[in-house]
Specification:
35% of the residues lie in helices and 22% in strands. By secondary structure, it is of the alpha/beta class. Strand 8, helix 4 and strand 9 form a beta-alpha-beta unit. The radius of gyration is 18 Å and the shape is globular.
Length: 308
Amino acid sequence: MSIIVFGSINIDLVATAPRLPIAGETLLGKNFFKAPGGKGANQAVALTKLGIPTDIIGRVGTQGFSEELINYLQAAGVKTDNIFLDETVSSGVAIITVDDKGENQIVVISGANGRIGGEDVERLSRLLPGKQALLLQLEIPISSVIAAAQAAQKAGVKVILDPAPAQTELPEELYPLVDILTPNEVEAAQLVGFPVTDEESARKAAAVLLQKGVKCAIVKLGAKGVYCSTSSESFFTPAFSVETVDTTAAGDAFSGGLAAGLSQGLSLRQTVVWGAAAGALSATKSGAQPSLPDKITFDKFLQERLRS
């Protein structure tokens, strides 16, 4: 079964440097490159590269990168018929700095992504029936995220929300619409109001998120692993050990791996392992979409790591 992604499409402008700059500091960098990105587009590409038929609904602007961005998505196999070309703004842009440890800082200019609204939700509603899941993120207006989740719930489609970029709070009405929420430790801390740094604090954070109405909370702790909790089960999954190069799209890769596992009918535990594997592989390469693993690489990685 196919999956729909509703969200952002960006061009990423990436600079590498020995370390991340502090406020007011100018650093000499190492390299610069341009790559397709945006959390919505990244998730869509993550899914298609794992062999899952995927539609994306979003916007690009005529004042920069629109044709380039659509071509990138089509080349990856994503269905782009429902991308709207907005003539009033530029496409979304993300300015990214990555240090030698693979950590990053990101500034996002929304552009066309910030204009996603009712017309886009209407296009989504027409495509939802029969779909396996809807993937959402927070690089588009929150009102559109809520409307999309409501449309999915009405159509009986599972909602998977990556609450990134981090927000200090989400509208309370959104939580009960979400089947699976996948914050990392920074995002989880913002949502629950206390630090999330390890398995124990992740467990407490997941409990708070479940109380808010989420059906499944998956707290990503980076190299420390993943904590998952529902009303009927809770478990911790260790991270796959890899040599980290760039974590820019690791969260999007996780969402793709997770949704791909669900589309294959795997158990929740297995789908979390798929998410962790996809995220780990993404962190071993530079860039957002260029770092997302294909099915052959993904399958080989899983077979080798689960056998050892």
